[in-house]
Every structure is written in structure tokens, then in C-alpha cells.
Write a structure and sequence with these properties.
- It is built from eight helices and no strands.
- The protein is mostly helical and 205 residues long.
- The chain starts with a helix and ends in a 15-residue tail after the last helix.
Length: 205
């Protein structure tokens, strides 16, 4: 039986991992089990992992001849551009962290970091499977991660402008908006409303 657009979206494993990851952060902050600083660092790392995922995907597209005349040129151009963006952004975060309430809690971050790694592995496998079935031009794929990370970083920048009391009150709203942006961009970029996303685990999950 052919799935509807909603069925395609709801059957996406990585989408649910994104939702669970963000909900875990929301609940942890609500129960004072984590700090705003920890969450900001996690969101930055999430952005880095998205870049790693797309670099591997672009390498795969290059091997399939979808990168034009240069086999891996687009992949390494993306690596340099995306990497420099995150170096500059890291410097910005270092200057901004003094305004963010709380210290970075590395114990909790360790577990959430494992969740990020798991999601990155599954998403990368799904991308490679789909590209093998429906090859996409690497030049178009290169811009997709920016659609996901730019809204996230804009929310971080505007969410932490002002006094600490105001930031603390607005932070739950910030996490909610970031989660919504994450989910919508995942659906739009991966086009799961059009077709079923390949199962990264071969059906055993």
C-alpha cells in the first residue's frame, strides 16, 4: 500500500531522533537538570555533525559522477566554506558565552553527544542509499545544510541578546522554536513529504 505524504514523514527514523533529542533538552532544562550554556554548545556540535554528514554525502555523489568535472571539488569546497563558517561562529560563541546562564555540564553532554553521533550515522546511511537510487547534483546538495543550520544559529544569536533574567525566561520558547525549525527544515531538505526516506537500518529498527 502506497504511503501518504504524512505516512512518509512519520516513518522517517531520523526525524524522530531529532524530535527526541530536542525534547530531552527541553525536559532537562525544565527540570533544572542542565544549563543554557550546555544547550548552546550542543546545538553548535549538532551543526558540526550536520556538516560532516553532508561532506560524506558529497564525496559519495562525486564518486557517482554527480559533481561535474571535478570529482571531489564540490565536497572539499563545502568542507572549507562550512568549516570556516563554524570557526568564525565558534569565536563568536566564545565571546557570547559570558552572557549565557550556567556552566557547561559535560556529563549530560556526553550522552546527548552519543545521540547526535547516532543520528548522524543513520542520516548519512539514508542519504547515501537515496542518492544511489535517485542521484542528485552535488551543487544543489551543497546548499542544503545551510537551510538547517542558519535558522538554528539565528535563534541562538537573537535568543541570547539582553539581560540574564530575560534570557532565562525566554529560553524555553527559544528551545521550542529551535525544535520546530529543526523538524521543518529536516522535512523540507529531505523531501519526505514527497517520498519515503530509505531505512538506514535495513528494517531491524
Amino acid at each position: 500500500m502506497k504511503k501518504t505524504w504524512l505516512g512518509n514523514i512519520l516513518s522517517d527514523q531520523e526525524l524522530w531522533l531529532v524530535v527526541v533529542f530536542n525534547l530531552a533538552i527541553f525536559v532537562a532544562y525544565l527540570q533544572d537538570a542542565t544549563t543554557a550554556s550546555t544547550i548552546v554548545v550542543l546545538y553548535y556540535l549538532q551543526s558540526v555533525f550536520i556538516g560532516i554528514q553532508y561532506f560524506i554525502r558529497l564525496i559519495g555523489l562525486g564518486r557517482m559522477g554527480q559533481a561535474g568535472s571535478g570529482k571531489y571539488g564540490i565536497a572539499f569546497f563545502f568542507l572549507i566554506h562550512y568549516g570556516l563558517f563554524h570557526v568564525v561562529y565558534f569565536v563568536f560563541l566564545l565571546t557570547m558565552m559570558g552572557q549565557v546562564p550556567g556552566k557547561v555540564e559535560f556529563d549530560l553532554m556526553r550522552w546527548l553527544l552519543l545521540a547526535l553521533i547516532g543520528n548522524t550515522v543513520l542520516s548519512t546511511i539514508s542519504d547515501l542509499k537515496r542518492d544511489k537510487q535517485q542521484p542528485t547534483l552535488a551543487g544543489l546538495v551543497m546548499f542544503q545544510p545551510y537551510l538547517r543550520v542558519v535558522p538554528m544559529h539565528l535563534l541562538i544569536i537573537f535568543g541570547f541578546t539582553g539581560d540574564a533574567a530575560r534570557m532565562d525566561k525566554a529560553f524555553l520558547l527559544f528551545v521550542g522554536l529551535k525544535t520546530l525549525a529543526d523538524v521543518l527544515m529536516h522535512i523540507i531538505v529531505n523531501k519526505t513529504y514527497r517520498s519515503h526516506r530509505p531505512n538506514a537500518t535495513g528494517g531491524w529498527i
